[in-house]
Structure formats: structure tokens, C-alpha cells
């Protein structure tokens, strides 16, 4: 596991989807992971999730919708301006019609559409 908590959790969800499971159990957890799952729930990629014991190692049970094809986390930091988000999205996503890029910003964890709407000036890290 180590420092790649979000990437390992996303791989667990993708593998559970490919095997046809209805739920996935994620452990350990982080605040960024919870924010990411809120975005996935809002966009309809997962049904719901439940956090158990968030003050210790913690566990999350995620009810899968069957819509996740691929999901990855980029572990290196990238600085982007709000005007560069669209170019970054077309470079990172396989198609223009589907998918979201989720970035961590000074305003919190946002998907690319919300980040453009809020016109955040600087982005730290990125994920898809």
C-alpha cells in the first residue's frame, strides 16, 4: 500500500467492477478519497458509500453502479492554470465525450467542470 492510498482504492473498485461484484471494500482511507467518492456519487458512477471508523485506519464500503471502465490517480504534482484545464482534459482522457478529470485545488477536490466554473487559478496534482 504505502503512499498510493487513492490509486490502490481506485484499482480495487475497477477490479471489482470487472469481476461483476456489487460492492468493494476500501482500506485504508483518506480525506481526499472521501471527497473523490462524493464526486463519483454525484456523477452517477457509484450508488453510495459508507465510512466505518474514520478516526483510525478506517474502511469504506462502496456500492458499485457498473459504470466504471477505468479510473487512475496520477501521483506526481502538476501546476495548471484554469485556462489550461481543457487542454489537460483532452490529453488525459481517452475520448472527449466521456469521463472526468478530478483535481485537488485550494478550494478542495473538484472535477474539471466545477473547477472551470469556479475559475480556480492554480491546481495541485491531478487524477482521472
Automatic annotation (TrEMBL):
Name assigned to this protein: Small ribosomal subunit protein uS8c
One BP term from GO: translation
Superkingdom of the organism of origin: Eukaryota
Subunit-structure text: Part of the 30S ribosomal subunit.
GO cellular component: ribonucleoprotein complex; ribosome
GO molecular function: structural constituent of ribosome
Keywords carried by this UniProt record: Ribonucleoprotein, Ribosomal protein
Family annotation (PANTHER family): 40S RIBOSOMAL PROTEIN S15A
Function noted in UniProt: One of the primary rRNA binding proteins, it binds directly to 16S rRNA central domain where it helps coordinate assembly of the platform of the 30S subunit.
InterPro entries (alphabetical): Ribosomal_uS8, Ribosomal_uS8_CS, Ribosomal_uS8_sf
Family assignment from sequence similarity: Belongs to the universal ribosomal protein uS8 family.
Provenance organism: Lolium multiflorum (Italian ryegrass)
Sections of the chain in a coiled coil: none
Gene3D superfamilies: 3.30.1370.30, 3.30.1490.10
Position of the signal peptide: none
Amino acid at each position: 500500500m504505502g503512499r498510493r492510498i487513492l490509486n490502490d482504492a481506485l484499482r480495487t473498485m475497477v477490479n471489482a467492477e470487472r469481476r461483476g461484484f456489487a460492492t468493494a471494500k476500501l482500506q485504508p482511507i483518506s480525506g481526499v478519497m472521501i471527497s473523490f467518492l462524493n464526486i463519483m456519487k454525484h456523477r452517477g458512477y457509484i450508488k453510495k458509500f459508507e465510512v466505518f471508523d474514520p478516526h483510525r485506519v478506517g474502511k469504506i464500503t462502496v456500492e458499485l453502479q457498473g459504470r466504471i471502465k477505468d479510473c487512475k490517480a496520477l501521483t506526481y504534482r502538476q501546476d495548471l492554470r484554469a485556462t489550461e484545464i481543457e487542454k489537460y482534459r483532452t490529453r488525459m482522457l481517452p475520448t472527449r465525450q466521456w469521463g472526468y478529470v478530478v483535481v485537488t485545488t485550494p478550494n478542495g477536490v473538484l472535477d474539471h467542470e466545477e473547477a472551470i466554473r469556479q475559475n480556480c487559478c492554480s491546481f495541485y496534482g491531478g487524477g482521472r
